[in-house]
Amino acid sequence: MATSEPVRVSGLLSFTASSRPEMRGTEIEEGCADSPTTAVTNPEQYIKHPLQNRWALWYFKNDKSKSWTENLRLISKFDTVEDFWALYNHIQQPSKLGFGCDYSLFKDGIKPMWEDDRNKLGGRWLMTLGKQQRHNDLDRYWMETLLCLIGESFDEASEDVCGAVVNVRPKGDKISIWTGNCQNRDAIMTIGQQYKERLSIPGKTLIGYQSHDDTSSKSGSTTKNMYSV
Hints:
The protein is α+β, with helices and mostly antiparallel strands. Helix content is 21%, strand content 22%. It contains 6 helices and 8 strands. Strands 2-1-3-5-6-4-7-8 form an 8-stranded antiparallel sheet. A hairpin with a 6-residue loop joins strand 5 and strand 6. The longest helix is centred in the last third of the chain and has 14 residues, at 185-198.
């Protein structure tokens, strides 16, 4: 199958939920059956567009009869724009998941857990949504988060991105972007500022960045922010 050069931020990734690409079979001009070559109407219909990275989508279901790792399941991996949309269009939206369930999208080779070597020195930009936002904002925010990741939307800072997680919880859902080094302030701030702008979050509404170490060792219900935007 023909392929093109890897894309970073392209129009193919800038679709809204109502304008996802529909992949059709190649169209052959009528009357060309005896021609030595086949005329293709539009090469875009059969060329897949590689992403800069290969990604893995994980699903977590909180079954208390199983261990945490047993509850974590790999759904699929993809490395082209078209395969991303094929997967996205065939899974439930976060707002339809049961409480205690998560989706995680991480670069291939990185597991969605603090203990992974690529995560343990890092942290996450965390956004907590109110209950009313589950129906108004959750699915849109999650889709934009995915597009930010696979489209490498944070320029050079995208190298620091490990993945993203959406947590569906009774008291309020959460979406987070994980990075690999909580001391890399410049990259972290670039990611936070551009992410907030991408989601059109009002300037007065702050989102915070927390290290995984602080989150895992916290004594109360909240974790202090290392950075905020």
